[in-house]
Design a protein that fits this description.
single chain, 459 residues, alpha/beta, OB fold (Dihydrolipoamide Acetyltransferase, E2P), Rossmann fold, 3 domains, 6-stranded mixed sheet, 21 strands, 25% helix, disordered N terminus
Length: 459
Amino acid sequence: MSDNAESCVSRTAAAAVDPARPIAHIESLDHEGRGVAHVDGKVVFVDGALPYETVVYQPSRRKKSFETAALIEIKAASAQRVEPGCRFFNICGGCALQHADIRLQVAAKQRVLEDNLRRIGNVTPERILPPIYAAPWEYRHRARISAHYVAKKGGVLVGFREKKSSFVADMTSCEVLAGGIGRLIAPLRELMSSLDAKDRMPQIELAVGERVTALVIRNLDAVSDADGAKLKAFADQYRDSHRVQWWLQPKGPETAYAFYPLDMPELTYLLPEFDLELLFRPTEFTQVNHRVNRLMVERVISLLDPKPGETITDLFCGLGNFTLPIARRGAHAIGVEGSVSLTERGQDNARRNGLGALTSFFAADLYTDQEAAMLRVPPVSKMLIDPPRDGAVEVCKLLTREARPELKRVVYVSCSPSTLARDADAMVNINGFRLTAAGVVNMFPHTAHVESIAVFERD
């Protein structure tokens, strides 16, 4: 057992163990990152336990076929148990798996993906793609954190929610926020506590770009001159070290605007392999993990294998994260997205990168009017689908051999293994595709969130 594992055991066993409490041998991790065991015919989910550990647990919720439980003591620790990298891990709900070696995290996510494909989709991939992952710290370039005034705490708490709670965690740093923003939690608490409107600014959304970090305050009221001066002073103090720019959002995300300073560079991220720089607003969707996103885009483009003269459709294209790399390889890329503003952003990014002639974007509702949307998509032999968590089952049902005889390859990027599995069922068992490859993308290290890539092909 490693020194880290021994220290974890000693801290967990803070008190003498009741001999009547049950013991479990942990077999795997579930989709929420909990240890899974079978005890007396029941499945037991133990928070904080890892595979191959023997643990003492306390049931917290009992049902006929399963129980959830709290970890009381680790009698035999996993060799893959490590010391959490953040001192607030035990209270903050932003991470669930810092106590697990990153290789165990990735392997557990791969198992979740394969289990979902088998159980829900009745499919098995012919090939497992190598997992995609990168450095697991300071990776979050986007986050939404709470700012809640708590009189008993003497001010405003700034951070993620507590584990299994609506309360804001009492934290002063964060090890997963990119751009050094995690080290600004304590200064942000001090700043927000000093504002007159401390109880009227409930949220800060951050977006870390290549040359600027946008901090978007959800302000329920107009910002007073006094509070504005404090925000400006904070931005001036951290301009050189953290490139801070304040934005204000009085209502919905579309109302966000730059507040101070106004002479900062535009918010962008890079795809160096494709010589691309994409512009975005801080409230627009972009991938959280820029390093993993670069690897993911490279993998997807390799699997699509765009050729000059081809036309490839990118469904749920956002602001062009995959559309522009497809075009950079010489194919004509058609981006389809439900948001008009995102399609406009995508076309603007194409022009900025010299790809206007090889790209076209149009807005269409791929959730409630799929048939009308797909009628606008020309015959193509290759297609990319990158939907939100709800998946794209109705779109997939339209990709039959009769409706799309020319379609030979679909690369599907998923942020939910269960909806991917459901959609894979339609693709394979209805549409006649083969699931030729699938693998995980560790976009969110230390969490149970599973992103993945699947490849469907037919003759």
